Amino acid sequence: MAVSDDAEELLGPILRDVSRAFYLTLRVLPAAVRPQIGLAYLLARITDTIADTDLVPPADRLQTLQQFRARIRDDAAPPVDFSRLAKEQENPAEAKLLLRSSEALELLDQLTPSDRGQVQIVLETITRGQEQDLERFGDGSTLTALQTADDLDDYTYRVAGCVGEFWTRLTRTHCFPNAQLDNTAFVADAIRFGKGLQLVNILRDLPRDLANGRCYLPAVDLAMAGLQPEDLRDPANWPKLQPVFEPWLTRARDHLTAGGRYTLAIPHTHYRLRLACAWPILIGTATLDRVRAANPLQPEPRLKISRSAARGIVCRTLWRVPFRGPWNRLFTL
């Protein structure tokens, strides 16, 4: 894909400003897949911004999301006017991205048919999940919970597990097409990797989601503990919640273990790709440790690892990546 000055700004400073902690992972990716994955991330950020702009009525957000999905799917679809949404953004970078969405779509049109198809497939899945969220939670004025564990598993697939699948198809095509791997197991671990990262976010951000009328912990689980979604707004209910919360912590860790297995299966010479996978796994694992040691119903402090801890993880991986033994030991989760 030929990269113009405008594309360099989209895939450089704008991507950096909207991707936050994930930017380092995007930057370390091999050049063969960096533009495609970076572009997919930008398009997903646009759809996420559409879905999350609370000052715009849910019905309008839903319509805009569907219109933008149609344009991603078909370059002949009508353009989407983001001027209203852009005015409602607190983050200037997200406003700028919305106003540059047409350029992001032009970049999509410049991809090879195969790569463009992969981006379209993953955005179709992500936007279906976002659409489902808007229909389920509406404007957030009434606290609503997912009903079952299957609902939560489906949600984590739609917004993150599918990304692992997409990432794997691209990297297998462009980075190690001839590697001898069990593709079925490799893709399954990729999906679990994505689900695990999303589950970490859900467990960490429980109070913030509750404040926005969203409870991703299944109502069936809460009922087993004698709780209603509203009860989770009181941190004093943590002892009652803990027995049904702990299995989700375990599931998140098991998914990240699958992500570690996925990373170890990547051919050893692909240093950049292995680092891009390792950092979110290790940061996610450290975040889970913080959640496990805290009362996750407490709104403050937010359960994130410090920047210095994240830098420590990066440094710890950089010297190990050439050496099989020290590298493999990183994933003894």
Which CATH class of the largest domain?
Answer: Mainly Alpha
- Report strand order across the widest sheet: 1-2
Largest sheet: 2 strands, parallel
* Number of discrete domains: 2
Name of the CATH superfamily of the largest domain: Farnesyl Diphosphate Synthase
User: Helix/strand-derived class?
Assistant: mainly alpha
CA(first)-CA(last) distance: 38 Å
Nearest-angstrom radius of gyration?
Answer: 20 Å
Protein name: Phytoene/squalene synthetase
Organism: uncultured gamma proteobacterium HF0770_07M15
InterPro entries: Isoprenoid_synthase_dom_sf (IPR008949), Squ/phyt_synthse (IPR002060)
GO molecular function, one term: transferase activity, transferring alkyl or aryl (other than methyl) groups
Q: How would you describe this structure to a colleague?
A:
- With 333 residues, the chain is an all-alpha fold.
- The protein folds into 2 domains: 1-121, no CATH class; 140-333, Orthogonal Bundle (Farnesyl Diphosphate Synthase).
- It is built from 16 helices and 2 strands.
- The protein has helices at residues 5-19, 23-28, 34-52, 58-73, 83-87, 92-99, 101-110, 113-137, 149-174, 183-204, 206-211, 219-224, 238-265, 271-292, 307-320, 324-329, and strands spanning 144-145, 214-215.
- A two-stranded parallel ribbon has the order 1-2.
- Helix 10 (183-204) runs antiparallel to helix 13 (238-265).
- The radius of gyration is 20 Å and the shape is globular.
- Pfam families: SQS_PSY (PF00494).
- It comes from uncultured gamma proteobacterium HF0770_07M15.
- This is Phytoene/squalene synthetase.
- GO terms for molecular function: transferase activity, transferring alkyl or aryl (other than methyl) groups.
